Amino acid sequence: MPTLLRSLVVVPLLALSLMATPAPTSAADGLNDDQRREIEKMIERYIMDHPEVVMESIKRLQDRMAREEEERAKANLVASRDKLISDPASPVGGNPDGDVTIVEFFDYRCGFCKRVFPALMEVMKSDPKVRYVFKEFPILGPESVMATKASLAVCASSRRNTWMCTRLFWRSKAA
Questions:
Q1: Structural domain harbouring 135
Q2: Which of 17, 106, 155, 174 could bridge 165 with an S-S bond, Cβ 3.0-4.6 Å?
Q3: pLDDT tens digits, residue range 75-106?
Q4: Looking at 18, 48, 78, which one is the last position of a domain?
Q5: What integer pLDDT is reported at residue 5 of this predicted model?
């Protein structure tokens, strides 16, 4: 890497590290106040002359944060696996003892959820080993909450009836 390019990379990194590090209470870092001010001026000039460095730094931070969030979400899924697939309050469709379990979070007012329902029924019909767990997730307003409460109240007598009620509710015009 050419020396000029290397210094263009090192200066912003030095700047960021200096900004993130509290000022020492002694001259133990080897810099006096004049030297520190001069470095800060150089860093400021560099950042002002090359603002894309700041944008690239922000983008890298956002990318790292997105990766970390994805890793946390995966870890949460693994940690919550039993709750997701074995909750007795969730309706189960298909084969209750199936070797493949699909979990769907849905809202009765969700247009996409309603459109995908026939395809889900086809999956369960075509593969008798699929177990389908429905998680009612009313997020689209008070009507969604009311639909979920109505569905759960009507279908509370048994798991099989809950599954059948869920199917009927999806096919109705009310959903």
A1: 84-171
A2: 155
A3: 998 998 888 888 887 878 888 899 999 888 88
A4: 78
A5: 44
